[in-house]
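wait is this the right file?? whatever heres the structure
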């Protein structure tokens, strides 16, 4: 399990933000991330102890800055905490080789497929910071910035939070653009509003 400190912000001008990222950060490549969220059956023992965000199966196609393409399937579940508009997540993640067989295994355990999400974008880095400018299908453009700190003590988290806010400012995005909800929550709310 790792700790990640991250923020997510709405991007109103993706072209300007990308131009600033090209100047201030190091471009690593582009990606397409297709996510499926799986949930245990309500009332089961697993359900009572499972994150409301579900288990994410991510099929990621990453094209690095040399043109090399890699496809990877990640299985992730998180315990999310918000501290001063910043996510501090306990994240568990591993890679699977056989996407279809793993989904069959989840179904056997009583999990059911729920929401889907797709995002495309660009990955940048600088020191220990990772930044993604992405377009989430049906939601628009977002900037995601994250740091994986060496521990989760308050001093370390505060230093990481300060770094994230500094990067946000450097990319000329105001704190009023911060978004603390999971994408799946926003998608569900938008779906309800459209009804």
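ok assuming it is, sequence goes like this
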């Amino acid at each position: 399990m790792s700790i990640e400190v991250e923020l997510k912000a709405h991007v109103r001008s993706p072209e300007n933000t990308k131009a600033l990222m090209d100047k201030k950060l190091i471009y690593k490549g582009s990606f397409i991330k297709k996510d499926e969220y799986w949930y245990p059956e309500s009332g089961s023992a697993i359900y009572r102890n499972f994150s409301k965000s579900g288990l994410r199966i991510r099929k990621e196609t990453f094209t690095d800055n040399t043109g090399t393409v890699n496809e990877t399937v990640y299985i992730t579940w998180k315990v999310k905490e918000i501290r001063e508009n910043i996510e501090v997540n306990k994240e568990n993640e591993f890679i699977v080789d056989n996407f279809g067989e793993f989904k069959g295994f989840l179904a056997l355990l009583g999990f059911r497929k729920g929401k889907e999400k797709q995002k495309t974008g660009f990955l940048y880095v600088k020191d220990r910071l990772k930044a993604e400018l992405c377009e989430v299908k049906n939601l628009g453009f977002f900037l995601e910035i994250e740091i994986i700190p060496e521990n989760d003590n308050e001093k370390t988290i505060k230093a990481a939070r300060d770094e994230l806010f500094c990067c946000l400012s450097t990319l000329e995005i105001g704190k009023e653009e911060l978004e603390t909800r999971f994408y799946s929550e926003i998608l569900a709310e938008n779906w309800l509003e459209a009804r």
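The chain has five helices and eight strands. so i think its the right one actually
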